[in-house]
Amino acid sequence: MRSNTYASQNPFQRERDTLGKTIKKFREKKSMTQEDLADEASINVSYLAKIENGYVNTTVRYLIKIARGLKIQVKELFEF
């Protein structure tokens, strides 16, 4: 369980967690490590880990980069 911080009080925490799990699912389905995806998406691996774990509100820009790195459409990240 998360500590009593902004992250745990965020009204969109459930969606952040689900989005992160979806990204991780696609990544693992393609047998990619976080490092592999970070390289493909040109993003920092620690930031990717934070997205996958629901710790940050990310931007559309990063979601596009992640989708391109996974070679999927952005909308697939939101089919949950």
Automatic annotation (TrEMBL):
CDD domains in the cross-refs: HTH_XRE
Matching Pfam families: HTH_3
Keyword flag Thylakoid: no
Domain HTH cro/C1-type: residue ranges: 23-77
Superkingdom classification of source: Bacteria
Gene3D superfamilies: lambda repressor-like DNA-binding domains (1.10.260.40)
MF annotations from Gene Ontology: DNA binding; DNA-binding transcription factor activity
Keyword Protease annotated: no
Name this protein carries in UniProt: Helix-turn-helix domain-containing protein
Gene source species: Candidatus Woesebacteria bacterium GW2011_GWA1_37_8
